[in-house]
Amino acid sequence: MMIQRQRRSEIHLVKTITVSLVVGFVIAACSSTTSIKKTGNDVTDVVLQTADKLRGSPYCANGQTPDCFDCSGFVFYCFAAARITVPRTSSELFTSGRAVQKSALAPGDLVFFNTSGSGVSHVGIFIGDNAFIHSSTTSGVIITQMSDRYWSSRYIGARRLL
Hints:
Blueprint: H1 2-30, H2 42-53, E1 64-65, E2 68-69, H3 71-81, H4 90-93, E3 98-99, E4 110-113, E5 122-128, E6 131-136, E7 140-145, H5 149-152, E8 155-160
Antiparallel strand pairs: 1-2, 3-8, 4-5, 4-8, 5-6, 6-7
Helix pairs in contact: 2-3
């Protein structure tokens, strides 16, 4: 009887460890390991490297410092690091610079999304390799693939300010 209980306990432990390892591997596989590459343009590189250093910063409404960012506050901060003043809201940013076709996106371009159902409500910075960096309401500053089902269905355009 004692041996059976010990055996069941060992089996339970093995199952627990196995599930923990599987969950860890799944989380690691889903996490972005995309690195932001240098472009050779000093201004663009300052914007992108600033953005990269801020990965993991939390989200908060109206935030524009490393303590916490909303999406346009994140863009505002990254561009300010390169001494470029940009508008503070996503809708104002959408009227800045010049329009860029999705097929012609370059690192540093701003990408815009409709997440609210009425016009521009989210902005991120395209980093190349079909990815953008942004301050997400659920995860803070992260890198996301443009092909992500949620974001690709909400994409509404891009602008080039650099």
